């Protein structure tokens, strides 16, 4: 089970943010919620974060790309 693997690799906190891909509105809302949580974990809590999409529907890369566009500073 994937949660057992998390424990083995010392991943202490797991946040499950369901993102419904069937409706555009709920899909966008879910992505934005996930990006806000990612920003909170990285910038406020100073955590290392592992993104994973159990369905393999490219949501994790989408969250990473949106986070990069919205929150990372470019020089």
In short:
The chain is an all-alpha fold and 75 residues long. The protein has helices at residues 2-8, 24-44, 59-71.
Features of the shown structure:
75 residues; mainly alpha; 3 helices; 55% helix
Topology summary:
Layout: H1 2-8, H2 24-44, H3 59-71
Structure in words:
With 75 residues, this protein is an all-alpha fold. The protein has one domain (2-71). The protein has 3 helices and no strands. Helix 2 (24-44) packs across helix 3 (59-71). It is globular. The N and C termini lie far apart (41 Å). 9% of the residues are buried.
The radius of gyration is 13 Å
Describe the biggest sheet? none
**What structural class results from the helix and strand content?**
mainly alpha
Low-confidence runs: none
Shape: globular
Strand content: under 5%
Query: N-to-C SSE series?
Result: HHH
Count of DSSP strands? 0
Terminal CA distance:
41 Å
Mean pLDDT: 88
Total domain count: 1
Helix content: 40-55%
What's the number of helices? 3
């Amino acid at each position: 089970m994937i949660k057992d693997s998390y424990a083995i690799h010392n991943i202490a906190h797991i946040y499950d943010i369901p993102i419904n891909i069937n409706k555009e509105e709920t899909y966008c809302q879910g992505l934005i919620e996930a990006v806000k949580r990612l920003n909170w974990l990285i910038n406020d809590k100073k955590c290392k974060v592992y993104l994973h999409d159990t369905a393999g529907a490219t949501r994790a890369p989408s969250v990473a790309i949106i986070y990069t566009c919205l929150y990372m500073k470019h020089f």
